[in-house]
Amino acid sequence: MAAAAAIRPAAMTDHPGSPPGSAEPSGLRRQPRQARSQERVRRILEAAEALFVSDGVGTTTTNAIAARAGVPIGSLYQFFPDKGAILRSLARRYGEQLHGELAALEQEEGATLDLDAYIEAVVARTDRFFAEHPGYQAIFIDLQSSTPDLVAIEEETDARLVADWSVALGARAATAGAGLSPEEAGLMAYVLVKTIGNLLWLSLSQPPPMRARLVKETVQLAVAYLRPRIEGDPGG
User: 92: domain CATH number?
Assistant: First the structure.
């Protein structure tokens, strides 16, 4: 949902001692099955996240990650062939978490809110997610050249959000008596995901007063875009 960003090739490489190996699309070399292995992977990812935030992605090594996680470097390599695999795992985890946040909103109260309150809630949850996950920012702000894997994960997250919003907007329009085809709902959802995501992303680099104003403007922009379409007045 952030602006397209990726990592400099140098940041994807690690020290010469990194063993070769291919990872699953999630970034993991293999999925942890036992509780102890799952806990070890969790510690590795949390250690990497903390170091990416404090030291930057480019300067963080797998040795530093293993040391902070309190695991032998060989144990790290059992699950992650290199730092790039850790980045991909974190990026995919952030995508799952953001999707879960917005899906929970739909299940809890989304359909019962009026349009203004609904968009305000969506923007607020997305903004809160960005603020509460500085590792997400560290990965996608610090990485500024081409990394297809991370771009693909970001686009996959957006596609899930677009699909969910397409259904939600179609249902909202039907309730309001407006005719909205699946294609129209999908296009509107795409515009909203990209617009809200990019505006909130840009707000992260602003001082607090400006950031708050951008969040508010994002809500107003999205509502103005949706109201004539959702409430059945295309010329409004």
Answer: 1.10.357.10
The residue written with tokens 């004539």 in the block is 228
* Cα-to-chain-centroid distance, residue 61: 23
pLDDT tens, 175-221? 887 778 999 999 999 999 999 999 999 999 899 999 999 999 999 99
Name the residue type at position 156: E
The residue type at 158:
D
- What confidence tier does 138 reach under pLDDT thresholds 50, 70, 90? confident
Residue ranges making up the domain that contains 136: 1-236
Over range 97-121, report the average pLDDT.
Answer: 92
Instruction: Copy the structure tokens of residue 195.
Output: 């617009």
pLDDT at res. 36: 85
Phi, psi of 204 (to 5 degrees): -60, -25
